[in-house]
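Project outcomes to date are best conveyed with an example. Our students and postdoctoral researchers have been running inverse folding experiments weekly, and each run begins with a structure described purely in tokens. The record below, which covers 351 residues, was selected by the lab manager from last quarter's runs and is presented without edits.
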């Protein structure tokens, strides 16, 4: 199995992504004779083996269905077992373009963490480039190394269990780019500088806090890096939905009502007559009182019209009235993922 090339059919031992819904997926290594429970019922691995990637497969007893997807770095990022905080595709996309990675590039990364970024870096530099990734936590380094091997990436990635700050990267003049996701990245900048090619290169440091960014920017400048830039990447997604809207018939009905209610509002001279007829002598402020009465009538009628329109609109929305059109439109997704961190980029120019 490889995350790089795509094959058409699932084979025994492949890692596949079982798609149950956009926010519900399951990474699965398929083995003859095994069964996996999903929330849509049981799935026999034998049902998956031999199928084309992308197939829709019914679960046992026809309780539901799943799709079987080919793994990609993006799908792995949202399905991997978390051993640390990880980087997500929004940041990863910007990192790869800003570091100017391409097939053949050599990249140094620290720390490896859960290997989320490493998968995308490896794909970007394949088939002739290389990723050297450094992780000082023994268990994490060993697990990442095994995963890269299982995912067919071991010829592209070398994992070293090493403290990138104390011991450095042990390499000089080899890297086109360095990526740091460390608690104190400023302490690793001199090693990063040594690892970059003598022709120069790009660096990126990911930090959740602005205080870390400040220290990193100061040290980047002190180490002779240029073009120091910090970005925060926020993702805004949109949903496509079908909505119902009232059609103009509603407007004519509202106009009819307006006409009726206009007739029911008295004019000021009628209102004066009404007061004079009912009053018992003092007619000094008849016009003022008449005006107030007419205004009160108008408010009453306006309220009636508003309630009529609201009632009509809710009937249209609830489908109890045929006077509506349906249309496809986009609405902003409910959740906008918040801050994960800042990406600080810089360039090392060498004379
Ligand atoms: C936040 S995680 C990296 C996550 C990774 N970018 C990903 O996408 O999965 C940071 C990792 O750096 C490692 N680390 C911290 N300090 C280190 C150091 N001085 N040398 C090497 N690794 C270090 C930690 O053990 C941790 O696994």
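After processing, the design step wrote out the following sequence:
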């Amino acid at each position: 199995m490889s995350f790089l090339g795509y094959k058409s059919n699932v084979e025994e031992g492949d890692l596949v992504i079982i798609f149950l819904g956009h926010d519900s997926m399951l990474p699965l290594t398929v083995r003859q004779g095994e069964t996996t429970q999903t929330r849509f019922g049981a799935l026999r691995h034998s049902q998956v083996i031999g199928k084309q990637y992308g197939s829709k497969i019914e679960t046992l007893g026809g309780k539901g269905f799943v799709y079987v997807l080919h793994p990609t770095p993006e799908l792995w990022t949202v399905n991997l077992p978390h051993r640390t905080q990880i980087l997500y595709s929004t940041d990863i996309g910007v990192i790869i373009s800003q570091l100017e990675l391409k097939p053949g590039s050599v990249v140094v990364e620290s720390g490896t963490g859960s290997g989320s970024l490493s998968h995308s870096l490896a794909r970007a530099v394949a088939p002739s480039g290389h990723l050297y990734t450094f992780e000082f936590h023994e268990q994490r380094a060993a697990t990442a190394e095994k995963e890269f091997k299982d995912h067919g990436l071991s010829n592209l990635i070398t994992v070293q269990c090493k403290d990138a700050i104390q011991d450095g990267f042990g390499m000089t003049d080899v890297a086109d780019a360095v990526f740091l996701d460390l608690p104190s990245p400023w302490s690793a900048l001199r090693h990063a500088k040594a690892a970059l090619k003598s022709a120069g290169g790009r660096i990126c440091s990911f930090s959740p806090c602005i205080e870390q960014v400040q220290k990193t920017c100061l040290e980047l400048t002190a180490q002779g890096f240029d073009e120091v830039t910090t970005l925060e990447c926020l993702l805004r997604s949109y949903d496509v939905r079908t909505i119902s809207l009232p059609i103009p018939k509603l407007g004519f009905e509202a106009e009819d009502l307006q006409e009726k209610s206009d007739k029911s509002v008295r004019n000021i001279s009628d209102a004066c007559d009404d007061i004079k007829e009912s009053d018992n002598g003092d007619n000094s402020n008849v016009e003022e009182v008449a005006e107030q009465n007419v205004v009160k009538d108008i408010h009453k009628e306006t309220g009636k019209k508003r309630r009529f329109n609201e009632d009509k609109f809710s009937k249209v929305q609830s489908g109890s009235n045929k006077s509506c059109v349906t249309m496809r439109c986009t609405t902003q997704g409910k959740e906008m993922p918040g801050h994960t961190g800042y990406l600080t980029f810089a360039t090392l120019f060498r004379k």
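The chain is about 35% helix and 25% strand. Residues 286-317 form the longest helix (32 residues). The training component of this project remains on track.
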